UniProtKB/TrEMBL annotation:
Residues 99-178 form the Cyclic nucleotide-binding domain. The chain crosses the membrane at residues 6-25, 32-50. It comes from Bradyrhizobium ottawaense. SUPFAM superfamilies: cAMP-binding domain-like. CDD domains: CAP_ED (cd00038). This is Cyclic nucleotide-binding protein. Keywords: Membrane, Transmembrane, Transmembrane helix. InterPro entries: cNMP-bd_dom, cNMP-bd_dom_sf, RmlC-like_jellyroll.
Length: 222
């Protein structure tokens, strides 16, 4: 029995289905469906190449399928971790794979007030202080997120390293990308920014109370 025609028809059908999946990926607005359809296209193209013994196509599709599967796993893990973080303490452990390391020494200024803001930081070790408000950040804290919300995209305060340590940075563009890919991240970021604003407000209220008390304690001239 001549199977060449069957292989040819199977190859044509496989290419057609793969083309449909590829076209579908161009209509995807979020990353997870795009990765899923990309994996389906890889599988179909791999199977289509088997009857023709096209090992190069099989190799390329295998590699692409692995990459798409890995990225899909990352995004699904991100979604699970964001949902968990939304209902728990504010943490950025789940965002570490998308961040870059930066070692800091005591006395180093990480950024200054009113300079252009491009990223936010996650403190892994050491101590860091906002110069203007005097707020000291412990390990696990996040700083620099308010610059993203500033209309002028500038730093609202200066940040100084007061004890050598390590920080992880993530660009605002990456944060925006994650927000588009996973809207739940937007709610998480809103909680994070609100917590920082309330913390700054509480600090200012304490400073105002101290200044008022100090002013009242100064004896008035006779």
């Amino acid at each position: 029995m001549d199977t060449s025609h069957l292989a040819e028809h199977a190859g044509t059908a496989g290419t057609l289905f793969a083309s449909i999946f590829v076209v579908a990926t161009t209509t995807m607005r979020t990353m997870i469906p795009l990765r899923i359809f990309g994996i389906l296209a890889n599988i179909v193209l791999f199977l289509t190449a088997i009857p023709a013994h096209n090992y190069l196509v099989m190799l390329v599709q295998s590699v692409m399928c692995f990459v798409n599967s890995y990225r899909l796993h990352q995004m699904l893990q991100l979604v699970r971790d964001v949902k968990k973080s939304v209902n728990s303490d504010l943490s950025m452990d789940w965002l570490k794979p998308f961040m870059t390391e930066r070692n800091c020494t005591a006395g180093e200024m990480l950024f200054y007030k009113d300079e252009k803001a491009e990223d936010m930081l996650y403190i892994v070790s050491g101590k860091f202080k906002l110069v203007e408000s005097g707020i000291v950040f412990p390990v696990g804290a996040i700083v620099g997120e308010l610059g993203m919300l500033s209309p002028s995209k500038v730093r609202t305060q200066s940040l100084e390293c007061i004890e050598a340590g390590l920080v992880l940075s993530v660009s605002y563009s990456k944060v925006e990308e994650l927000y588009v890919q996973n809207p739940a991240f937007g709610f998480y970021f809103l909680r994070l920014s609100s917590a920082r604003l309330f913390q700054n407000l509480e600090t200012l209220q304490k400073q105002l109370t101290q200044l008022t008390a100090a002013s009242a304690a100064v004896p008035k001239p006779a």
